Fold S-adenosyl-L-methionine methyltransferase.
Amino acid sequence: MSRLDSFIRRVSAQRDVLDHVCSLIAGLPGPVLELGLGNGRTFDHLRERLPGRRIVAFDRALGAHKSSIPPEEDLVLGEIRETAARFAGIGAALVHADIETNYAEVDAETMLWLPSLAADLLQPGGIVASGLPLQHSALRHLDLPPGVPAGRYFLYRRLA
Ligand SMILES: C[S@@+](CC[C@H](N)C(=O)[O-])C[C@H]1O[C@@H](n2cnc3c(N)ncnc32)[C@H](O)[C@@H]1O
């Protein structure tokens, strides 16, 4: 498969997952936390799909396209492990974590702290969509939407 085909599959799966989780949280009030603003593409998609919903975006530095920069009060710069921990208890309806690097050592380290961070950020019934698998006793695994290959994303619901 060409890198172009692979890229198209990856972003298409990402779009399908985000649309799916937006429908899952339709009746659940509470903010959305975007861990890994990056270029701002998924932030922009969530913003479009969830009009009126507060979306707080995190990254170590601002690199988003100027059309996709959150308002100052909803942009948090620094190491997510530390910055997002300050939002524990916020009662997020959705956490989207797009911070995998595909460097095994870096991702292994992230998987040590991301599961409990996600659990602390979510309200009971809230959803986390992550590019990395999350193992935590308060997070119950959910199926991916049809057509999204296993292992490309991981979905969980926060238990009560
Ligand atoms: C794959 S990009 C996100 C792409 C974004 N979802 C988009 O659609 O444009 C991952 C981003 O997460 C940030 N990131 C990864 N690990 C981080 C960490 N531990 N703390 C802060 N930012 C982190 C990187 O700086 C990068 O901008």
About this structure: Strands lie at 32-35, 55-59, 75-77, 92-97, 122-130, 139-142, 154-158. The helical segments are 3-24, 41-49, 80-83, 104-121. Residues 36, 38-42, 59-60, 63, 79-81, 98-99 surround S-adenosylmethionine (CB under 6 Å).
